[in-house]
Design goal:
heterodimer; A: five-stranded antiparallel β-sheet; 4 helices; globular; B: five-stranded mixed β-sheet; two-stranded antiparallel sheet
Chain lengths: ~150, ~90
């Protein structure tokens, strides 16, 4: 398991190759990249600033990966989440999961993202034409996580 | 007892506190300090604290880096944190 919280950008291709090459019995690597949108709630966004809770963030992400490992037979997982000041189209987060077959990796990757969105202590603040504002948590993100509990 | 409290995002910005060390009388909370009791104690400081911790805004809490609910118990030496619902990813 690799969990990193960092200011600098990441090379998703490199991370995915590391994951692929680590296990010759892996038949699938599923990855998700989240990036900064230039539009939110109908307003143009020019900058996004990400804050987190050092110490808790890493623990929360590791706990989410462990939860995914307990549900699916996955081999390895990489989570990289950026913090600091980002521009539209900048990468925010990478989640990549390897497994023997695609089904497990697809499900685990989505599960990790749904839990990350609702339980990992990150907060976004966006710069729009009318000023700065904190991004509000969405009920649809809560719903996405809750469906895994059914 | 002594605890450390961290504030994040909107709470940090509005309360103008990123963290504080708090010393509380051991018998101040009928011997059991819950997250809710701590919130109410802090909200007592002034109107802004009241609004941020006990108002309409949803506040989440953590003790020693674990998300907890209002009934969670705080003990001496704990690291407590208050923050809005998370918005990463």
């Amino acid at each position: 398991m690799t969990v990193r919280v960092q200011i600098q950008d990441f090379d998703a291709g490199l991370e995915i190759n590391l994951l692929r090459n680590a296990r010759k019995d892996a038949g699938a690597v599923v990855s998700f990249i989240g990036q900064v949108r230039d539009l939110n709630e109908g307003d143009a966004v020019s900058k996004l600033t990400l804050e987190h809770y050092p110490g808790m963030t890493e623990k929360a992400l590791e706990a989410i990966v462990k939860l995914a490992q307990s549900r699916w037979d996955i081999f390895d997982t990489v989570i990289i989440h950026r913090i600091g000041s980002l521009q539209p189209a900048d990468q925010i987060v990478l989640v990549a999961v390897s497994s023997a077959h695609r089904g497990e990796a697809f499900k685990a990757c989505e599960f990790i993202m749904d839990y990350l969105k609702t339980e990992a202590p990150f907060w976004k603040k966006e710069q729009t034409s009318t000023g700065e504002r904190w991004v509000e948590a969405k009920i649809t993100d809560e719903d996405a996580r809750e469906r895994w509990k059914k | 007892m002594k605890i450390k409290i961290f504030y994040f995002a909107r709470l940090k910005e509005t309360l103008k506190f990123s963290s504080e060390d708090l010393e509380l009388a051991d018998d101040a909370f009928a011997n059991t300090l819950t997250l809710l009791k701590l919130k109410a104690y802090l909200a007592n400081r002034n109107e802004t604290w009241q609004q941020m911790l006990m108002g309409k805004l949803k506040v989440r809490g953590a003790i020693n880096h674990e998300l907890v609910d209002d009934n969670a118990t705080i003990v001496d030496g704990d690291e407590v944190a208050f923050f809005p619902p998370v918005t990463g990813g």
